[in-house]
User: Fold these one by one.
Assistant:
Number 1:
Amino acid sequence: MGIAALALSAALPSYASGVIDNVNGIAIDPQGKVVHFGALLIDDEGKVEKLIAGRYQEPEYKRPPKPKKGQPWPQPPKGLAFRLDAGGKTMIPGLIDAHGHVMAFGLSFITLDLSGTTSLADAQAKIRAYAQENPGRKWIIGTGWNQEAWGLGRFPTAAELDAAVGDIPVWLSRIDGHAGWANSAAIRAAGITSATKSPAGGRIEITGGKPAGVFVDQAMSLIEKVVPAPAPKDRDIALEKAQRALLATGITGIADMGTSIDDWQAFRRSADRGALRVRIMAYAAGLENMVTIAGPEPTPWLYDDRLRLGGVKLVLDGALGSRGAWLKADYADAPGQRGLPMISDTQLRNIMSRASMDNFQIAVHAIGDAANSEVLDAIQELSETYKGDRRWRIEHAQIVSPADLPRFGQFGVVASMQPVHEASDWRMATTRLGEARLAGGYAWKAMLDNRVPLAFGSDVPVESPNPFAGIAVAMSREDGKGEPVGGWMPQQRVSFEAALDGFTRQAAYAGFAEKRFGSLVPGQRADFVLIDRDISTARAADIRGTQVMETWIGGKRVYMKGQ
């Protein structure tokens, strides 16, 4: 069935320009089923021409009969531009991250990164060292801190940051991007005092009647308005570093969630130089960026399907780690707190309607059960007006009321989820909500059972972009240490086939790109990865350690391990 669907053939078309032979090929057919092949033919446009069931055989060329008088001799078929013997390596479609933040990932390489710190003291030491190694900076900017990973049991304070660096402003985003940690100099620079009120959709942490140093969700803007923006040159450097890191993990495409005009211009500059390799499906950060970048309608696909602005990203609530996720009942570990919606129900519907009028796709960040219910309600209402293939997206969909799960399928809503979040969050989620409220938590299998399009990603740089870790978690519900043994809520595990489908075909479908790339279906761009093991037969724990040997995009090698 799969062989017929993917038109496997041993014949060489006259316009083929290359062949990757002797592979343990794994592809995804249009129904999401795994098929196997032995060689891949690439045409002269860098697209998949054929998948061959076995080894490639050079076709025999027979000279045609002499043409009639006055008729030209038929031209022989073109030869191959290249032929690569892959030595039996496993080939899979190029992997697609359905939810990431490209520029933030790149900037993490050139700013202070606290993602590997294991305690408050460890973070303070790293901050202090960074300041000493980078003298003369007017601000220290960074990201990646996580009080849960430190075992702190509370947010850090401005005084604790002052102990590391107190003479210049310091602003550090939490790993999920939904809270920021400021020192006293930064708080003063922003003009924030004990009289400053928390903005709608945000929270200033207060201790002793004064700002404690952490600003949650919309309150982050109080500091960020005075933080120097990255220069265009810094963005260009960051984008190149992000691309190199993504290609090394086998990522050939990514949905960039929250693209600003500055990000878009960096993408365009890179593409104009011929340096944009990773395919970027961009979702504008709000209406203003949407209109500024794309104008009256989504952009066309640009640079041989490398770049498109097709939708808008909205944020309804915060994250569990900072207790900003909007819940229907109080947090189990913080009575009286339920998180907050960042925008009202009327604002949400107005923004979704405005974008839908011009055929932009809608992607809404919703983590808590109240937030997910609110977005589904809005989609149900707007679906009466905006017909056709809308592919409404809910980003994260981490905590969903069981009664709401069928509604995703009812309205064709794409569940854009990140398996690695479950591995990082399972202990915290249990603390925040309690077991009884997690029946619809990180519910991948339940989404599939309700016929919901399930696209997988990483939320990079919140998590590592490594898709093999994501596949492993999707299959096992275990973290990198193999905990909990047997998986957390193991009934929500999915098969290898579904996990790979989520990182390929479904991730492309989520961005209206499934006819262009994602599955190695003939006619699609020849984006693929050569890896060091057969992940179709490996245990989930072994998939996590998969090494990418080569990454190809559009029929061209763009990464080779060790080079």
Number 2:
Amino acid sequence: MSVSQSNLSDPHYGYDLVVAVTQASVNATLKQYLAGLSAPEVFICYVYDTNNNLVPIDYKTLVANAGGTDPFSIPNNAKPATDPGLQKLTAANFAGAVKAQIGLPDLPLESLPAIATFGAGSSAPVLFKLLCSEFQITGFQYGPRGSATWINQSQPTGSGTPWYFSANVFLNDAPVDPNSPVPPAVQQRINELRHSVQNAFTIQKLFLDLSTAILESSPRIEGIPEGWPVWSLISQLFLGAYFGKLQQKGDPVLSYSFTVHAPRPTTLQLGAVSRECSPLLLNGQKINNPSPAQLNATELVYVGTQSTTVPTPVPFAWNWVELGEVNAVSGVQAVRRDVFFNYFSNLINPETAALCISTHVEMHHSGENFTISYSSGQSSSPQPFRVISPIGQPGSDGFTDVLSLSFANNSSDDSTSSTHLVSISGDYNYDMTGRVAVKGNQIRIQIHATVYMEFRHHEVGVGYTDLPGRNYYDKTLTVLYTLGVDQNGALQVTETHGTQDTSAAWAYDPGGILGKFGFENKLRDAVTDVENKLAARIDSAFTTYVGQMTATINGYRAWVFPGNDAFTFKNLGFSSGSDLTAQLTYVNPN
């Protein structure tokens, strides 16, 4: 099972779009992002007020109040009783301070923990670990009988264990908890951020969602043994006072932000997205005690709709990315078939109108003389391609029909001479059917056009068929498009085409007295001329149709995949449910 099983039209799902990325790709891209991130250096400083409560203070104000003393410059274990700088900080009621900067620690990459570990379920649970390139904490730890110890420590560099904040967060809706320290308005704002569609699939937006969702959790400090004095200090200052302040306002942790770029144009305009986490399945079943490689194949699945109603995630019966694909792709995307083929039919229907031809025949007499008028032109009521519903099974050639078209124009007339001894009659009909079918990475368009003509006359009670009723034009145009995609996520196609001709041989053979004496010669010439001209017209329309349709598909109205600001696309194709699918690779976030 894989993306090839995608069937978003199943009523159990009904999403317009799915984007699924693996835990392995998310972590690799997050680390790449943090390695190049120019995050602000954040100073978090606290002093005691007159009631011995911790209150925040601006770093520069603190330094000024302490007579120019920078708490981060005083070495660890300096003596509070004798160090002049510490005496100034004591006089300024200094409690402690943290200096931190989001990024990758100066440690071997292989020693760093996974930033995001996906769980399972529609709430999209994630174990999030917020790493910092810089992490330093200073302050006083007070002991018995008024004793104090000065602490100034930083996370290791070169080797060792990084310091980081760890929290279990949810990337999908969490109920607004009235007992939470986060005010309901802030909880609601976080929920709205989860479903925002702008830059929805970028790693920057994912990191923002993770670092914002941490406010609704109870973060832990990792990498520092609990018995260390610095652990007590950071628990008091950072996990207590600082996070408490952020939770009340909803501000991002350590002032993280990213520039929101105007999204690249995309054909599918999403109204809302939700997320869920999907562990790797084996034969459709959850794996007990999965290996590290199998855990890395766990997927973060975005489900999107064009409606602004937030979609409800449900589990899928297949893996979007198989275990053997984890090292080759970041994830996959699937577009519901009706979404794509409604777009595709609207794209090609204007070009198809030129193939809808009205035929007309009129027959008149003046005395014993007959006149025939044949004409044809573009129909004023062309028929469009329409989505087939429900979709049937693939044909013997493996192609599945997804769009169909049917157009017919019938014209007939007759006329009788003044003496009622001779009459003529004829038919001049045009039919066209069309099918659009898909298989693998190909779209096939077939147009079948026929022109049926028949001419008869009666003389002295005897009937003659001068032109037997047959399809004197009977051709099938087959256009085969192979799918590709450009660097901007726009669908591009390469085209081959051919025409199959099964037209009946021209069989005009006038009979009776009129035929013998040549009275039908002018009618014969007229009928023959019409057939040749209309055939040439349809042939020309076929040729023009192929060129114009290919130019339209590849032109400025080309299908542009959602998420083109986050991914590159490859290996386009259609699933067994005829959804349009593509494999994804995260672009360099820096």
Number 3:
Amino acid sequence: MAAPKKGRRAPASQGHPGRTLILVLIAMAGLVGGMFSTGTLTPRLGIDLAGGTSFTLAAQNQPGKPNAINETNMNTAAGIMERRVNGLGVTESEVQTQGSNHIIVNIPKGTDAKQARQQVGTTAQLAFRPVLTTTAGTKTPQPTPSPSQSGKNGKGGGEQATGKNASPSPSASATAQGRAVTDALKKPSAAPSASGTAKPSAQPTPPAPGGADVPPALQKQLGALDCSTKQSRATAGEQAAGAKPTDPVVACKDDGSQKYVLGPVGVEGTDVKDAKAVFDSQQGQGWIVQMDFTSDGGKKFADITGKLATKTPPQNQFAIVLDGAVVSDPRVSERLNGGNATISGGFTQQSAQDLGNMLSYGALPLSFKIDDETTVTAALGGEQLHAGLVAGAIGLALVIVYLVAYYRGLALVALASLLVSAILTYTIMTLLGPAIGFALNLPAVCGAIVAIGITADSFIVYFERIRDEIREGRTLRPAVERGWPRARRTILVSDFVSFLAAAVLFIVTVGKVQGFAFTLGLTTLLDVVVVFLFTKPLMTLLARRKFFSEGHPWSGLDPKRLGAKPPLRRRRTAPTQTKEA
């Protein structure tokens, strides 16, 4: 019989548990270091814990669209609102539909509630309408600019080097909802034409001779239009925004300086693919808003500018209408191709970013009004957080009492593992705040409390497998290695079921319930990591210590208390000797 090879480890044994423990400690140190390097030492708190503002918006039917309030449009509007609010730098907003015609928007503390209200409540219905005629409003008229060619022809087919074909330079100001835009053209100045030749434009554009193409009814409406106050301009804007795209309308300049009769919509706001604020240092225009159109929108924009270029003032102008107010009315002298344009005219950085944000994230398919606005104070959130932490502390204390009373020395292993799990959970939640916008809300705290029981259950499964092996008569070191494969299967199956439940809950729910599901799923994954990379290696090391290996009464592994069988021994058969007769 061949002798067994020396130096061969049992299949289930672990050769270097110390290295695995060092790896875990390095990972923990790296996560803690990441917290300090980012300056984020505490998790971001949700609205229910830190306080914030909640808006309830009710959808309104639009003229000519009696069935516009439906599930598809409500979900689309909720998605656009969420992107708008996140465009403000808000990383923990909650936007969700409620019922058939309401949307709930939750904004955390620290966000400008007024600015957020404008973003979520403003429909941002953008349209490009041709100007039929215009007249001065009650305020001092401002110069009417014309678009200029903003790019230089590069090589190959006359493509624009900057990709921007038109650079409208309006005396832009606020929208009807009060988004102020500084007017850079306070006095008569020269506005460049599309060919680059400067043309003075110190006076408002005169109306077309005889009011050509303007029906008498619209001329009467134009004469009665009041643009003298913010309230009157807001009313006029609501009426213009509510008109059908195929109908002509009368509208005010957003600063009240001019009144217009506008033709049917030539380009819809949904044809704007993207819009962003850019500081133009090359041509000295300051902050501008660059717009990129969709493929169809670019064709429409080229068509409308091509038609307007053949007409005389003011019918060679197109009005950029935002929420029923004219924010720009540049003149056109040539067809503008390329699918993009630039709006300039004395924007501030904030106003350019606000306009670009709303246009970039599209026009809402519905109009909304704010039915309710509620502010959650930080004091109430602090009370809820305190209650959650007290509940977690009580749950943890009960688990510790049970472990110490039943497992004695093994409770040290469980407590060390719980501590490692807590450190990993806390650091990861803290780092996920600035990384993906994760915020700890009250349901998430509940998920962390539930995770204490899940993690403790994994330790108990492993400890009981070790005890079963000791009851079979094995010593501690073989029991630790033989009990691990059986415990490992049970732990993986249990954690898989918990993670699957958390994933399904995260997918099918919305709002704060997702916080519970996310935390439960995260802690379940960390439970597997801790048990495999910390609890098992630590148990392997402790099995080599006399206190545990000899079954001290306080170790929790006393063979007598466990009712162990006598040690398993092999029976050796004595060799048979034959005597010679």
